[in-house]
Every structure is written in structure tokens, then in C-alpha cells.
Design brief:
Elements: E1 2-6, E2 9-14, H1 49-76, H2 82-85, H3 87-91, E3 95-99, E4 107-114, H4 119-129, E5 133-140, E6 145-153, H5 163-173, H6 175-180, H7 182-185, E7 200-207, H8 212-222, E8 225-235, E9 238-247, H9 256-272, E10 282-286, H10 292-302, E11 324-330, E12 335-343, H11 348-358, E13 361-371, E14 374-383, H12 392-408, E15 414-421, H13 426-436, E16 439-449, E17 452-461, H14 469-479, E18 484-489, H15 502-510
Antiparallel strand pairs: 1-2, 3-4, 4-6, 5-6, 5-13, 7-9, 7-10, 8-9, 8-16, 11-12, 12-14, 13-14, 15-17, 15-18, 16-17
Function: Binds amino acids.
Pfam families: ACT
GO molecular function, one term: amino acid binding
Length: 518
């Protein structure tokens, strides 16, 4: 007990320690005083300063404790049980069925699950990554439940009968896919058996020009970095790339960090060009795990390519490929209705849903149908805050963004595939040949499986003219000697060379696979 002496009565101050040996009676009087462990001076009524210091130390101690707790909260954050996030999924797991009996022309994929933001994009992403064509779809997610039916075929228009593909659909869209994070981390591009964490991701965006991809890949090859996977898009005179690279050195290179810094600096200089273009041109390292196609849409959206500020290199699209996007109001139900009519193509639904999702719009209902070469899609949407599109400026922006998302993947003209043993400098070698033959890359992709690399390219003449057959012939002679070359599509306006036998014509028109072993 702690007391202070006040005449005949002792007044209580606190219960710390009683009858301490250090407080022996003085002057023969049997009077004891308690002491604090941290305070040697005794507390008297005539000396109130010690009482003030005691209170101050207590307050300071409490303040220090509070600051420590706040620091820990900021450093580590609040704790949430990871099992709680998937609790609703485990209580009401998604139901997925792949039905090949109900329709003679296509496979029906049915998904029933608890509704959550972005779930439609996740489902469409899985189907698109499997290269499935969505011919029809019926979406309903108003309320707490999400119910979808997709009519899908493979790229050849046949039903999905491969057991591995069916098993992947059921696994990815079922309970295991939601709880294991498959929907969130699937990159959309293959890089062998390794995970994306084994590679360095580079994002590039800037003004497009002939030979730019060749310059980019040459920088990587000179610094001994291998391109394991890549996706390259161009639109409205802009280029966006996502590259997955790894170090060619078998052991840890001590100067790897410095080489990465040099690479970043050189790529930024190339993207800015001779005119020192500062309009959003940059190369950065990415640490996220966003789906690569979605990331390209996000990069173009942030670059505001939908405004069409650089049209001098824009491709002249055929009239039937121009999308028709309209927005109306459904006052009775409180929705904004987005109607899209355009030429049908692969991953069309993914591109539209991805754009709406990243613009913070939720899709409550949708109907998708394809009639021959044409596609018609209708989406009932609201903003994430529950509001519909009211202002004309907001509607105009949504229309422009959807049109841009559709056009980014449209590539008219000459396309081909290359298969070869993966090695450092492969992409640089191919793009150099394209540049030397006056061809500009409008879209490209790189995939690595094991030791084999598979690249596809969409190219056009740098001057805007159709690619001539003699140019394609030179490509076959220069590239096909060391790689497997498969011409997928030849522009109908291309002129055949004046000389050449039937075998060469059959190669180009039929897309015959030329096999040259390395």
C-alpha cells in the first residue's frame, strides 16, 4: 500500500507493495511507508511533486503502450482467418455441369453459385483461356445467386469432348477453383511447367512504329534475357506489351540487378523514340498476377487509347468489322442496357465484360448470340454504387471504351505461326527478318512449353499496303530454314508472284505446315 502522512489519518493512494524492508521505521515510531518499484522517494503531503511525477510516468507508460499497439496494427494489419473468406463458398459450393446431350451442335456449360463482384469475368476468362467459342449465353445474377448457361464449341465448331478439357472446366469453375485461387491467378499464357513467379514481368506501352518490336527484343537478347512468354497488341497508333523473361545464366548472376536496370533504361529510351515522346511511354516491372489479356486492356484504358489521339498508323478496318454500340435506359427495372452488334470473333465476350468490370460496372443480366459471322450481345448493367448511366458524357465514354476493346484484338491481313526450340534471341531473330522485309507487327504472342517455343504474328506492310506474295515467299526462305512455319491467313488482296510452281501456291493458300528440323 502507498500512503502519505496527513496527521492522524493515512490516505490511500494505491496498492503496490506493503511493509517494504527499505521503509524501516524511523525515530522509534512504528510508521511504515510503501514504495513503488520504480520510485525510491517517499510520497509526503508536503512534497506533492513526487505524486505528480508518479502520475506522469503512468500516463507516459500508457501512451507508449498505445503507440506500440498502433504500430503493430499498421505493420501487420488486422488478422482475418483465411477460412472465413471461403466460408460462404464451402457452405453453398458452386455447381458446374458440362452437358453434351441437350444440344446436338454445342456443349452446354452451366454454372450456379453465390453471386460476388467480378464472378462473370472470372467464368468467361476460364472458357476463353481454353480457346472455347461462346456461341450463346444467358446470364442472370440479380440478387444473391449467379446462374449462367454457356453454349460453347471448340475452335473448329465441334462439341467439347476432350476429357481433360471437361475436367479442367469442372475443377476451375467448381468449389476447388474458388477456394484454391485458380480463377485469380491463371495468367492466360503458358510458360512451361514453371509458375509465373519464376519469371520477371515487364510491361511496356508507348507510340507504335515499324520495327519497334524488333528493337525491344534486340535489347533483351543483347542482355541475355530470354522471352518465355509474351503478348503484344497495337491500337490507335499505340503499342502495349506484357513480357515474361528469365535469365539465360544457369546460376545466379551477381550483376543481374544491374542488367535489369540497364534493360529498363534502354527500353524506356526506345519507347520514347527519336521525338522524345513523353506521352505515357514507359517500361516497368510488374509484380501482380493479373490475367495478361485483362492487363493489356487496363494498360490501354489507362493510356486513353479510346480517345484516338494518334490515328496516323491506325488500320483501316473493313466496314463489317466496325462495332455498333448503343446504350439505352430500362427505367422500369433500373438498369442501363448496353447493346453491341459486330463481327463475331474469339474472346469477344471476354473483352466486353473485362472492360465493363474494370470501369466499375456490374452485369446483372446478359444475352449473347451469334448468327453466322455476326454477334449480338446485350448487357443490363449498373455502376458499382447502384447508379445507372445518366449523363451523355458517361454514356459516350462507355461506348468508346467498348469499341476500343473490340478493335484491339481485330487483326486483318497476314498471319503465321512459328515453332522452334526455345533459345535466347529467337524473338529478336524473327522480328528482325520481318522488319528487313518491310513488315510491321500488329499483334503477336509467345508461348513456351518445355523446350519448344510457339510464336504467332499478325503483320501488315509498313506503308499500309497489302502484303505481297513475294514478301511472304522471302519469309519462308529466310525463316523456314531453321523453324517450322505455318501460314495461317493470307490477305485476299495479296498478289501472287509471277514465277512459282503449284507447290508454292499450295503452301500459301492451304496453310501447309513446312517442317524444317533444327
Amino acid at each position: 500500500m502507498v500512503y502519505f502522512k496527513g496527521g492522524e489519518d493515512d490516505y490511500f493512494l494505491g496498492n503496490f507493495r506493503q511493509n517494504s524492508p527499505s521503509n524501516a521505521p524511523r525515530g522509534g515510531k512504528n510508521t511504515s511507508y510503501d514504495r513503488l518499484d520504480a520510485l525510491e522517494p517517499r510520497v509526503y503531503q508536503k512534497q506533492p511533486l513526487y505524486l505528480y511525477e508518479l502520475a506522469k510516468k503512468i500516463v507516459d507508460g500508457i501512451g507508449s503502450l498505445i503507440r506500440s499497439v498502433v504500430h503493430m496494427a499498421r505493420s501487420y494489419g488486422p488478422y482475418f482467418d483465411p477460412e472465413y473468406e471461403t466460408l460462404s463458398i464451402r457452405i453453398n459450393p458452386p455447381r458446374v455441369s458440362v452437358d453434351n446431350a441437350s444440344c446436338k451442335d454445342c456443349t452446354l456449360v452451366k454454372v450456379d453459385s453465390i453471386n460476388k463482384p467480378g464472378i462473370l469475368l472470372e467464368v468467361v476468362q476460364i472458357l476463353s483461356d481454353l480457346d472455347l467459342v461462346i456461341t450463346k449465353a444467358y446470364i442472370s445474377s440479380d440478387g444473391g445467386w449467379f446462374m449462367d448457361v454457356f453454349h460453347v464449341t471448340d475452335q473448329h465448331g465441334n462439341k467439347v469432348t476432350d476429357n481433360n478439357t471437361i475436367g479442367h472446366i469442372e475443377k476451375a469453375l467448381g468449389p476447388e477453383g474458388y477456394t484454391s485461387g485458380i480463377l485469380k491467378t491463371r495468367p492466360g499464357r503458358k510458360v512451361g511447367e514453371n509458375s509465373m513467379g519464376d519469371y520477371t514481368t515487364i510491361e511496356l506501352i508507348g507510340r507504335d512504329r515499324p520495327g519497334l518490336l524488333s528493337e525491344i527484343s534486340a535489347v533483351l537478347a543483347n542482355l541475355h534475357f530470354n522471352v518465355a512468354a509474351a503478348e503484344v497488341w497495337t491500337h490507335n497508333g499505340r503499342i502495349a506489351c506484357v513480357l515474361y523473361i528469365n535469365d539465360n545464366c544457369s546460376s545466379l548472376d551477381e550483376d543481374e540487378e544491374s542488367r535489369l536496370c540497364v534493360m529498363e533504361e534502354q527500353l524506356n529510351n526506345i519507347l520514347r523514340g527519336h521525338e522524345d515522346d513523353e506521352s505515357g511511354a514507359h517500361a516497368t516491372f510488374s509484380v501482380g498476377s493479373t490475367h495478361v489479356d485483362r492487363r493489356l486492356h487496363q494498360m490501354f484504358f489507362a493510356d486513353r487509347d479510346y480517345e484516338g489521339g494518334c490515328l496516323e498508323m491506325e488500320i483501316e478496318y473493313p466496314p463489317n468489322s466496325k462495332p455498333d454500340v448503343r446504350i439505352e435506359s430500362c427505367v422500369e427495372k433500373g438498369y442501363s442496357v448496353v447493346s453491341v452488334s459486330c463481327k463475331d470473333r474469339a474472346k469477344l465476350m471476354f473483352d466486353i465484360v473485362c472492360t465493363l468490370t474494370d470501369m466499375q460496372y456490374a452485369v446483372f443480366h446478359a444475352t449473347i448470340s451469334s448468327d453466322g459471322p455476326s454477334a449480338s450481345q446485350e448487357y443490363f448493367i449498373r455502376h458499382m454504387d447502384g447508379c445507372t448511366l445518366e449523363s451523355e458524357a458517361e454514356k459516350e465514354k462507355v461506348v468508346k471504351c467498348i469499341e476500343a476493346a473490340i478493335r484491339r484484338r481485330i487483326s486483318e491481313g497476314f498471319s503465321f505461326e512459328l515453332c522452334a526450340k526455345d533459345r535466347v534471341g529467337l524473338l529478336s531473330e524473327v522480328t528482325r527478318v520481318l522488319r528487313e522485309n518491310g513488315l510491321s507487327v500488329t499483334r503477336a504472342g509467345v508461348t513456351t512449353i518445355g523446350e519448344k517455343a510457339k510464336n504467332f504474328f499478325y503483320v501488315r506492310d509498313a506503308s499500309g499496303n497489302p502484303v505481297e506474295m513475294k514478301t511472304i515467299e522471302r519469309l519462308r526462305e529466310e525463316i523456314g530454314q531453321t523453324m517450322m512455319l505455318n501460314v495461317k491467313k493470307v490477305p485476299t488482296s495479296a498478289k501472287a508472284p509471277e514465277t512459282g510452281g503449284l507447290a508454292k501456291t499450295s503452301f500459301f493458300l492451304g496453310g501447309l505446315l513446312e517442317k524444317f528440323r533444327t
